[in-house]
Amino acid sequence: MTINHSSFYRLFKPIESSSYWGRRDAFHGSLIGKFKQCHNTPCAKGSDESQPFSLICCPCFSTDSVCESTSKRNRSTSYEILGSGVILLKNYISLKDQVDIVNICQKHGAGPGGFYEPSHQSGAKLRLQMMCFGRNWDPVTKYKGCYRSDGSKAPPLPYELISFAKTSVQNAQRRMKGLPSMCPDICIVNFYSPVYGRLGLHQDRDESPDSLRRGLPVVSISIGDTAEFSYGYTRNKDKLDKVLLQSGDVLIFGGKSRHIFHGVTQVFPNTTPLPLLQQTALRPRRLNLTLRQF
Fold this sequence. Notes:
The chain is 17% helix and 22% strand. It is of the alpha+beta class. Strand 1 and strand 2 (86-90) form a beta hairpin. The longest helix is centred in the middle third of the chain and has 15 residues, at 95-109. The relative contact order is 0.21. The model is unreliable at 1-38, 41-50 and 65-73 (pLDDT under 50).
């Protein structure tokens, strides 16, 4: 069942199972070798690093080489429980809502406190663009600093994203037990490099002791290119499960699984849906938003 919404505020989606996706086989590796580049979208070259980073391509970008089978594919909303407190809502975000989310990130990301390249303790840059809503976070100081090194403060978390995360958790709670409610006050936005689309294995353990003790869930929104997401209860990569996260998918983990190890193994270039590119001119990369309560 395909569900369309006339407003970003109408995000209560009834979820039906769909055989289209082949359940676990479609999520855990069988599609890995089948993904291919479906379009090749050139963006502006020679960008000035002193200028605000933009999610949007130059006005002259072309999508003529998009694979027809991918652009016309009709996906149905479904869900899959991946573990205790872990649920995947497939194709949960309508195209219109994806466009709205891109526009929100573009509006704030190009302003004060917007996208930048954070650094490791060693000084090496992360190979992605990042920004935060509600409260600043970075790999070195975590949540300790109210201001970034450039003196900017995180913009307020938009109400639309708060409403979306709360509604997503409520829908997930109807499908599984053991998932606490959550009212987000932080959102970390990552825009992955088209060359090095990875994020190392880690745990999200920088929130407050109370939030972690209660297992308040993390809501992860995927937009743009498809990613291979690894997760599990160990750092042993051979024992991790994998799932494909496509544009419009929402992954939620909390409760007993709040401290799972997880990371992005790879991003499949040029798999952003054509309609999303046409309506946003989004650079064909992966945009990921994770909302949580401090």
